[in-house]
Fold:
Amino acid sequence: MVMRTFFFLKIWKDYIKRCGIAHSSKWYNMQRSIISIQSFEIFISMAESLVMLILVHRDYYSKYPLFLWEHGTEAIEHIFGISRQVIADFNFYEFYKIQKRVMYRDKISRAGLIDTSRNRTSATGNRILFINYYFRFI
Structure:
């Protein structure tokens, strides 16, 4: 499926170029007849990266199953979420300084020694104010 996408995009771009040369660049130009060049490059890069991931997994991690959904940004988002619990607004240097604390906090959280779930009570007061406001006029 990845290779089909890769070759489709390459053949589509080549077709538009050849038609622009053979017929008219007014009707077959790269700006109007294909996705943007930035999106094209992103999709090509994604297809190449997925093929490389599969090849590396085959060569080096053949004993373990390949779960593609595990190769996402969830781990990075988790680290940034814990970092924002430590310091709400941080720059790169502060992020670098707190990484030991963040990793320690993540390790404790995964071991189940502390409860990191927070109660979402910030909107409760707004709801009560709305209900009081609404029923005042009825």
